[in-house]
Amino acid sequence: MGPTEIKIGGLGGQGVILAGIIIGKAAALYDNKHSALTQAFGPEARGSACSAQVVVDEDPILYPYVQKPHLMVSMSQDAFVKFAPELREDGTLLIEEELVKPQGLPKGVKVFAVPATRIAEELGKKMVLNIVMVGFFTAISGVVSEEAARKAVTDTVPPSTIDLNIKAFERGFAHGKKLLAKA
Amino acid sequence: MNADPIGVLTGSHYLDGDHSCSEGAIAAGCRFSAGYPITPSTEVVERLASRFPRVGGRFQQFEDELAASIAVLGAVWGGAKAVTVTSGPGFSLMMEHIGLAAITECPVVYINVQRGGPSTGLPTQPAQGDMMQARFGSHGDYRLIALCPNSPQECFDLTLRAFNLAEEYRVPVVVMLDEVVGHMTEKVVIPPADQIEVTPRRYTSKKPGDFKLFEAAEGSLVPEMVKAGDGYRVHVTGLTHDERGYPAMNVVAQDKMVKRQFAKIVENADKIITFEEKNLLGAEAVVVSFGITSRIAEKGMQLAREKGAKVGSFRLITAWPFPEKQIIELSKKVKAFVVPELNMGQMSLEVERLAAGRCRTIPVLHAGGTVHNPEVIAEAILEAVR
Q1: CB pair distance less than 8 Å for A63 and B292
Q2: Which CATH superfamily is domain B5-195 in?
Q3: Nearest CA in chain A to B183
């Protein structure tokens, strides 16, 4: 199979890195795969578009950086514009439906959209939009199992917020399954 | 003895290399750190500062790396296991006290997360340009130990080992990460405390008056220690000293002191040196690599094998002392060594020296800022076996 490369982009404050940690952790700790997470460090990490990069593989990971992502998550238009050119021509793009208007993508790219911010607001906390995205990513990509992702959410978020975050995960996951059923 | 369970976070974690170093230090019994935080090593001290209060330790931020690197020596003489953490610019400032730690045989650990240099260079990007500095950076003749993890897991394992080696040989030990290993997050398994071997400080059982702080213990080249406040009158100085620790600035004392301090590392080199060999049987070329570059090199080897190259791998886990015997033996069997490193030629010089013309040495050099392109390493391997 070889490594699966994932790049998650968004605005500083959207929980981009945490989403990457949860996906990487789900693969490495609960799915018995290997994963390596790297982040872009530098002035761009504050305020504007930032990213988390995760490589998931059955075998130990040698090259830790993401070069041509198979899967990209865009949670802001800035992040989409900045990172989308790196996506593989047959890659999959997951977007925040109301914040990202994709343009100029190669024909082979499959796009799936979720109104993560609106769902998070319905749950009472806009903050959990990244976990909605993690749920959505889990359903669409199949890179990590639902069970592993749930465990990773549970042991990563602050204990008092587990219920809320699991709800966010479930809403994102259900939305993804619904889209797949239609497709 | 086993690790104190209070400091050991047994279980599987998803940690970056920096945080994993902190856990390795705590598991080893380290309870003091002084630092002047610097990218890309800051996460190490951040975690120590957060974890220490819960395990009876203390982190103190100092005004600069000079102060931090001597505060840890004070902590060691006070009875603690101690670490300071830095990156290139700070490592340069710490050289003075690495020399002091060497001449006073102070068991202390330095962690250097390497970034691009010289000077302030590339604060957030990797390099492996401090390898010779780790060995020769302080003035005068001394030997220390340097270890090179290539994963967050090894950051735990080797930081723990660094503390054990420091106590075993009463010597400063440097853990040489690079920015990629420091900042990448992977699975890290921390064993139960009763499966973690920790080397305690070798305190003397001799009475005050009978004990000499710089006299090799019986059957060993390494002197025992005492702790401040235990009633021993000791003298610790950066001047050349006799076995009691008093300044003795003459040829005989210098010869005896320097040569024993060398010998304790050189004569124990086989016990200190660790490395990882792969696919050496029938190999025509051997890639010698360390740190993050060893993983990129592994990828390069895969690409070269697809094109028919018979290539094996020799990964340095201990950089210093250098595995001289192993490189000499390999040089008799292969056509060439390929040495990729994120610097303009440091460890490759050592490989070339030991190969002594018996085989070629092909450095694959990179000024730093990112990792090698694996294809460039593959090309060098194909050239090596041609």
Answers
A1: no
A2: Thiamin diphosphate (ThDP)-binding fold, Pyr/PP domains (3.40.50.970)
A3: A38
